[in-house]
Model the fold of this input.
Amino acid sequence: MSSITITTTHKMHTQRDIEEALLGSWSLLEYFSDPFDGKGPSLHPMGPDARGMLTYHPDGRMSVHLMPSAKMKSRTAVNDGFIYTGRYWVELQELGKNSFMVCHRAELASLPYLEGMVQRRKVTLPDNNRLVMSFVGIEELDVCGP
Done:
């Protein structure tokens, strides 16, 4: 599971509250992956100081820019970072306290397999100052969304 932690001061209750709270640009605080089997420590695939920006526009468009730590001297193709842009929407589902689903439909992507796909992300608000996004899955375009 990969997570992005960003800071927000918004309280979110309805779909409209969530959509409005997401608007703007968010700076990456941490990017990590937990082992699938739950054993072992979290990994930082782009280094502990990965850099990133996530932007949600009011017209339903979004973009993600994720780059490895500037301190990483040797990069591999998998960890060179990635960028994608496209449409997004919010889905309210029973995902637990203060949680909802955001779907990103990639129209342009630095990783070719992402283009034309929908990434589903669980968003959790553990408190008023944090927003955590966790990868849920990738689906074909016609499976979900507007």
In short: The longest strand covers residues 99-109. The chain has one helix and nine strands.
